[in-house]
Specification:
Blueprint lengths: L1 H8 L10 H10 L10 H42 L3 H9 L8 H20 L4 H8 L2 H5 L5 H10 L6 H20 L3 E2 L5 H6 L6 E2 L3 H11 L8 H4 L20 E5 L7 H4 L7 H16 L7 H9 L13 E3 L8 E5 L5 E6 L4 H4 L2 H9 L8 E2 L12 E6 L14 H5 L1 H25 L1 H9 L17 E6 L15 E11 L2 E3 L4 E3 L6 E4 L6 E3 L2 E11 L4 H7 L13
């Protein structure tokens, strides 16, 4: 149920990808937008695609409502006649010339009951979200009475749980918006006398929660009593409340340094390659970092960096600590002596994307215990290894193949992969647009190698190609030698410590949930300090071997067998 709630929560009032307002409009109007500019054929085809997409959402919604009506009607007849489902089928359906099989009839009845439980737990508007997110088949195949449990969770969300918070803060808010914007009534296809006996009107106003509850309680089953606080209109939050205040100016501080990555002291790998010795090396560096003095403001950072590097190299055992307060709501761009990027630190991720990162991660993985509350400084050496590290690559490179391919981790965890993409799509889109605007040169380098993937595929994490989650781990000193150009690290969780230390440039960066850093991970030795609390990180990167594919399709670019790529 956690994964389902996480995916449903992706349709929030601030979403640029999953727009519930547009879905409501589509279902209410059953028409498509018209395009008037551009190439006539291209516009015509795009119009048709948009129209088919709109019809698909509308048909999906109507399919769920029809199955729900069928289940309600069947339940009413069985109650009146005291018949089993098989007896009802034999009496009413079997004699028909055109009929479904009993198996199909039973399946529709079960499916309609599930949709009724979900609509009864919220309102019929819940099915608008299901249709728009393309979750109808997933919800229809939910095992056992999971639909009833979800219906109860919707009616009475527990604010002390992540599922309850997601329902209250996201799902109910969207339903409130749809109720106030798009009136929907359903003719239950029952005689008015039957409806009147249950004190129901001849048409059910789906926006009226009291009437909706009375209807579903009367004809299906009785769910738990509704918790009126989160369902009260006064709890409805307008979509612009959670948006970042447009009056707050976002600054980007650019600092040029004399750091020279080509110097031997900076290019050679400083830590031993044996794991046990690397652990000792990392612990020593952590002790050095623990005693570093932080800079209080950007001017102080400027001043320290101006004289920090001698001949392009930092002094031995020296670091500069950059606290989170320096980049709150802003960006910091540090450049090397050759103007290449040393680090880009961003603190301007909007609150509606930042605030729910931890709950979104936990729910999308379907495991409320995935993040362990721990103190990495109190464990043994083994604690420095990741007890749970899941790699979810969009594209990896296979040296023995001609073309890039989808990683085995993705294929083995397809449901998880799809859930993660659905939940974090708006975050990935924001990062893409942000990097495009603020790091245009670096963005173009990354996106250039990602433009021509097999079968016209598109990476969901552009301009990067790979997505990795590091969970419950403070990484030891290492370089990611296979990374191409920039790597982006975004912490998730509620924790203290866990700073990102960059050995050669001598930077220690405090990153809280939703703050991220981009740096050249293949050329800089980096590690985390110890942390206390629940901590994970999202890492976006690209395998450097993809360059060979982008350049000439690994030497097969002129082969007719690959022209469709």
């Amino acid at each position: 149920m956690e994964v389902i709630v996480a995916e449903l929560g992706a349709a929030n009032l601030d979403s640029q990808t999953y727009n519930p307002h547009e879905w409501g409009w589509v279902i209410a109007s059953s028409s498509a937008r018209s395009l008037s500019e551009g190439d006539p054929l291209l516009c015509s085809l795009l119009e048709q695609c948009m129209e088919m997409g709109s019809k698909d959402i509308a048909i999906s919604f109507k399919t769920m409502v029809t199955h729900m009506k069928l289940a309600v009607n069947i339940q009413h007849i069985r109650t009146m006649r005291a018949q089993s489902l098989q007896d009802l089928y034999d009496a009413e359906i079997a004699p028909l010339r055109i009929k479904s099989s009993y198996h199909t009839f039973q399946h529709w009845h079960t499916t309609g009951t599930k949709f009724a439980a979900l609509a009864g737990g919220s309102t019929v508007y819940f099915l608008v979200l299901v249709a728009g997110l393309g979750l109808r088949t997933s919800l229809a195949s939910m095992p056992g009475d999971l639909a009833c449990h979800l219906g109860n969770a919707l009616r009475h969300p527990d604010p002390d749980t992540m599922i309850g918070c997601t329902i209250i803060d996201k799902i109910i808010q969207v339903i409130h918006m749809l109720r106030s914007t798009f009136p929907i009534t359903i003719d239950p296809l029952f005689p008015s006398t039957i409806l009147a006996s249950h004190s129901l009107p001849s048409l059910i106003d789906c926006a009226n929660i009291a009437t909706s509850d009375l209807f579903f309680n009367s004809f299906i089953f009785k769910l738990v009593e509704r918790s009126h606080s989160p369902w009260d209109e006064q709890w409805f939050i307008s979509s612009d409340v959670s948006q970042q205040d447009p009056s707050v100016r976002i600054f980007t501080e650019v600092i040029n340094t004399s750091y020279d990555g080509s110097q031997l002291e900076n290019s050679k790998i400083p830590m031993p390659q044996e794991s046990a010795v690397d652990t000792v090396w990392t612990e020593r560096e952590r002790e050095v970092v623990a005693n570093v003095e932080e800079v209080n403001n950007v001017d102080s950072l400027w001043s320290k960096l101006e004289s920090f590097y001698v001949g392009g190299v930092k002094p031995t055992d020296s670091y500069i600590f950059i606290p989170n307060s320096l980049v709150r709501r802003n960006q910091l761009k540090l450049r090397n002596s050759d103007q290449s990027l040393m680090a880009y630190i961003c603190g301007s991720l909007p609150n509606h994307l930042r605030s729910s990162l931890m709950s979104d991660l936990i729910l999308s993985f379907g495991d409320v215990n995935i993040l362990i509350d721990k103190d990495t400084n109190q464990g043994t050496q083994g604690d420095f290894q990741a007890p749970y590290m899941l790699e979810k690559d969009d594209v990896r490179f296979n040296y023995s193949q001609l073309v890039p391919y989808i990683s085995s981790e993705t294929l083995k965890n397809q449901a998880l992969y799809e859930a993660v993409l659905a939940v974090f799509t708006d975050l990935f889109e924001w990062i893409k647009e942000h990097l495009k605007e603020n790091l245009p040169a670096e963005y173009e380098i990354l996106v250039e190698v990602a433009r021509e993937l097999p079968c016209n595929s598109a990476s969901p994490v552009l301009p990067f190609l790979s997505l990795v989650f590091n969970i419950n781990v403070a990484t030891k000193g290492h370089r990611d030698s296979r990374d191409f150009d920039l790597c982006l690290v975004l912490p998730i969780g509620n924790f203290k410590g866990g700073f990102l230390a960059m050995k050669e440039p001598g930077l220690v960066v405090e990153l809280l949930q939703g703050y991220f850093i981009g740096f050249q991970s293949a050329w800089v030795t980096h590690f985390n300090t110890h942390y206390q609390g629940k901590c994970a990180s999202m890492v976006l990167h690209t395998d450097k071997e993809i360059q060979h594919w982008a350049r000439n399709h690994n030497g097969w670019g002129d082969n007719s067998m690959l022209t469709t790529f």
